[in-house]
Specification:
By secondary structure, this protein is α+β, with helices and mostly antiparallel strands. Helix content is 20%, strand content 31%. The strands form three sheets. Strands 7-8-9-10-11 form a five-stranded mixed barrel. A four-stranded antiparallel beta sheet has the order 1-4-3-2, covered by helices on one side. The longest helix is centred in the first third of the chain and has 32 residues, at 2-33. 13% of the residues are buried.
């Protein structure tokens, strides 16, 4: 009788261990069958960095809810911006197109920094900018709602439209635009090609800088044509 009781106790203990081992095995199998949320976040980060190699953005990825269970994807995840990307809050769409299909939206916050030009001293209205009164500064462009300038060359020696404070970020709206052609101006209208070129007098119907497409009236025929501004007072007809 005593041996039988001992045998029963031993048998129950073995059963308990087997149940525990099976439970642990099932749990490990379940984990293996799920997509690692940490791996998703890592792949999202790599995707953003690859998109902004030059700008070195500051990335904040919102943690994915740990209660979420996604089937392990049998192929490379599809990662795309859900909307046109901007500085600040964005959504990234992560999808599995394998047998186990699922879709996930991951919120991310981006801060993109660029070297932009700022004034190193106060600049009065009507004065010009140059490399002596400006410098580059690394700033978060998401906060520069009025725009910014990365290349100062096109603005060299252009007059300012208003006073500029020391430290102020420069943008294109701060400078006078010098049109190569002004509306109502008499211009030379050129047509043809390198072999045969015809020049006639015309009247500009709009302002334009070099490279702009403007409308011009041919003074001889009164026909209105479209032309590309070539230089001061000159435009090339396009057909």
């Amino acid at each position: 009788m005593e041996k039988t009781q001992k045998h029963d106790v031993y048998f129950k203990r073995c059963n308990s261990w087997l149940i525990l081992c099976f439970a642990l095995f099932s749990h490990s199998q379940s984990i293996a069958a799920n997509q690692s949320l940490a791996s998703i976040e890592q792949q999202v980060r790599h995707f953003i960095i690859s998109e902004y190699k030059q700008d070195k953005p500051k990335i904040n990825i919102q943690s994915i809810d740990s209660r979420l269970k996604l089937g392990k994807c049998g192929q490379k995840l599809s990662i795309k911006w859900h909307h046109p990307v901007k500085t600040g809050r964005n959504l990234i769409k992560v999808q599995c197109h394998a047998k186990t299909q699922w879709k996930l939206f991951v919120p991310v916050t981006l801060e993109i920094f660029k070297q932009v030009y700022v004034a190193t001293a106060a600049i009065r209205k009507g004065e010009t900018i140059n490399r002596l009164n400006t410098k580059k500064k690394l700033l978060d462009i998401g906060k520069l709602h009025r725009g910014y300038i990365e290349n100062i060359t096109p603005y060299d020696e252009k007059k300012t439209r208003r006073n500029i404070r020391q430290g102020e970020v420069l943008n294109s709206h701060l400078f006078e635009i010098r049109h190569a052609i002004k509306r109502g101006q008499a211009i030379i209208l050129e047509t043809g090609n390198k072999a045969i070129s015809v020049k006639v007098k015309g009247t500009a119907l709009s302002n334009g800088q070099k490279g702009d497409l403007i409308k011009v009236r041919n003074n001889s025929s009164s026909i209105i044509v479209e032309a590309i501004v070539q230089d001061k007072g000159k435009a090339l007809v396009i057909y």
